[in-house]
Amino acid sequence: MTGTIVKKSELINSNNRGHFFIALALLDGSDIKIIHLFNAHLHETFSLHRTVALKNLIQRQEHFLFTKASKSSFIKLFKPTEQQTKLAETLVFPDQKSTNQSTKRTISEALLKDVQSRSTITAKVVKVSPVKRVKEGGSLAVRALGIADNEGISKLVLFQQNAEKIFEEGDVINCSNLYCKTYRNRKQLTSLASTEIEFVQDDNLLLLDITSSPPQFLEDPDFNTLPPPPLHTVDEVLFTDVYIICTNASCHRKKYQRGTCPNCAGTSSTESSARASLKLSDGKQVTVFEDNLKVLLGEQPIITTNDELLQQIIEALPITFEADIRTNTLSRVVKK
Description:
This protein is mostly beta strands. The chain has helices spanning 82-90, 94-98, 107-110, 160-164, 290-297, 306-316; strands at 2-8, 12-14, 19-28, 31-37, 50-55, 58-59, 64-66, 71-77, 102-104, 118-128, 132-134, 140-148, 153-159, 172-183, 186-191, 197-199, 231-244, 272-280, 285-289, 319-326, 329-335.
């Protein structure tokens, strides 16, 4: 495919899930084709009025995907006619039409297979899971809720700030920007980075009787209460690493690589975080990130330089704590 770039979007968050791309309107003869370009290192090179030849694109219903397997080359600059310019100005990229749409629905409606837009629901909390931490160093907080309204029951999965909120059985919540997902062969509602949760009063909300026929998700392992974690002691510090992180909420504090966020291609952050590689008394090595370093040290880690953080940890040795260890990272950390 060969064409001239006549319109270029700002950075778009794909379904608000933290995968960023730019949309391009490519004038190919008399047709305009929409290209989604995920490769962050190419965003600046695809400028307006450049004619580009593209290969190995993946075709979707309304657009084409430029992936890692795709190739591009630039041919020349092209000045579009006045008519083509006006056409480009009226073009609205499909993804920008529905990015923030959230329709008010019941739980049963939100779980329907053919629902395309995001849902806003009001429901009563019937079960609350403990917060679990996943991804790099436990950087992503996850919580599951069992929710019910007049017509249905569902599991609702929350992330980050929403997962950290305090929920109790009987709370009535209003949740926006939810989508239906199938997990472990069961439908559930899942939140996005744009999901907002509000605690409300709703005397008209009738709670379905779930005692006679408990929903299957109430036996989901995500709701299990975990046993106390084992005891460990840190004897040695192997290395420390202070680095810049992305402040975009959708990037979950992603570490900058060569001065750029690998998710959103941002370059303006000055916020730091840190990790440390520690050796335990049983010989195991673990990587501990800022949040858990704060727990182990009993104070805020010094994240200005590697040397200062190293000195701070050395002065705290030996450090005894409880934690689960999985793939050399810690979760459920409690200092003893």
